[in-house]
Amino acid sequence: MSARTRRQKAALNVPTDDSEDLSTHNGHLETSSSPSKTTKRAASKKRSRSAAREEEENDENIFLFAPNLIGYFRVVLAFASLYYMPLHPRTCSLLYSVSCLLDALDGYAARYFNQSTTFGAVLDMVTDRCTTSCLLVFLSSAWPRWAIVFQGLICLDLASHYMHMYATLSMGGSGQSHKKVDSSRSWILYQYYHSRVVLFICCALNELCFIGLYLLSFSSPILSPSLLQPVGDVQASSAQPGNPAHPVPTSLFASPWSAGALEMARANKIDSFWPWVITGISAPVMLFKQFVNIVQMVNASKWLAEGDRLNRRASRNK
């Protein structure tokens, strides 16, 4: 046998790196490079679970998430408080306070159930802005001399949050939360939104101050003297609406939805001690909250202007 033949046979007996390692399993010839049946079944199960999870996520009803259900309940309580607001200060204050306190619960539920959504964040903000605005509208009617102050607070609250939300979405991206503020942009806003405790205290005491002012409109003769108080012993000769000396006010304001009925309800004073305490304690925090609103509006304006400069520069370079 020649040397060349021997070398060829030896090469046939030695497997190379490119050849497949053959093995016998249950009487059948298998290659190590092909997956086993167990591996195939595991991969198939993994793909099935992934497909089922994806299908479940696609079928999720965002509107029925736990924090959003709490948000709907807040809206119901807010509407109920508005219904009782003109004539029933105690019931209105209770319903309004519960609606505000649930603002913290829906955030906890979103984190606990991992159900944080953009819809829920917008629903929460819209509910807060609308309920606060409605209460300030009532305060404007209760104290006409201070109406411009309450109207200014409404404008500041709406403008600040709208500009901040719009700047966050347009500059930070659609997935960016309005509560994620970089410390380099505003240290005050970073501290305000970064700590849940600080955010809760500021929002709660801000609403509490407005509730205290609302109760004072029913309780303080200094701030809201009744238009139905009789003037000395003078008796009116005719039943003229709005005449404080009319002997039988109920005959003038028979409708419970009239402006006169509101004055009659306010004439039935409640004790003003606790409303003064509530207002006095929460007023400094309310003022700080308005300062934060101003800072937030200015910061959002600068951020939007920065985006405008970048867009104009990019358009000139094209």
TrEMBL record:
GO terms for cellular component: Golgi apparatus; membrane. It is found in: Membrane. GO terms for biological process: phosphatidylinositol biosynthetic process. The chain crosses the membrane at residues 197-216, 273-292. The lineage of its organism: Eukaryota, Fungi, Dikarya, Ascomycota, Pezizomycotina. It comes from Penicillium oxalicum (strain 114-2 / CGMCC 5302). Residues 38-50 have a biased composition (Basic residues). It comes from the Eukaryota. This is CDP-diacylglycerol--inositol 3-phosphatidyltransferase. PROSITE patterns: CDP_ALCOHOL_P_TRANSF. The keyword Glycoprotein does not apply. Belongs to the CDP-alcohol phosphatidyltransferase class-I family. One of its GO terms (molecular function) is CDP-diacylglycerol-inositol 3-phosphatidyltransferase activity. Residues 1-53 are annotated as: Disordered. It is a multi-pass membrane protein. PANTHER family: CDP-DIACYLGLYCEROL--INOSITOL 3-PHOSPHATIDYLTRANSFERASE, PHOSPHATIDYLINOSITOL SYNTHASE. Keywords: Lipid metabolism, Membrane, Phospholipid metabolism, Transferase, Transmembrane, Transmembrane helix.
